[in-house]
Write a structure and sequence with these properties.
mainly alpha; about 90 residues; about 80% helix
Amino acid sequence: MCCLALLAFGLGPRIALLAWWIFGDKVDVAFDTWIWPLLGLLLLPWTTLFYVIIWSVGGVNGEEWLFVALGFALDIATYSARAARARYATT
């Protein structure tokens, strides 16, 4: 059950962002080029997802950057959990 939760936490934002990019126009409106969302999809999915959500609500300025920073913290936590799991895995 724990592995399923970690898998959903790791792949969930990527699937949501990809679906929003394919079936909606918010990602294209938030970014000028397709390179930044692609890099965000591969490297920082939570940060990119939070940026698109905040951008679609009314723009990213002032206090809204705190939500983008929260997305970045979730990305760092995801990568840290993978590293810790690999370090303490028993074979």
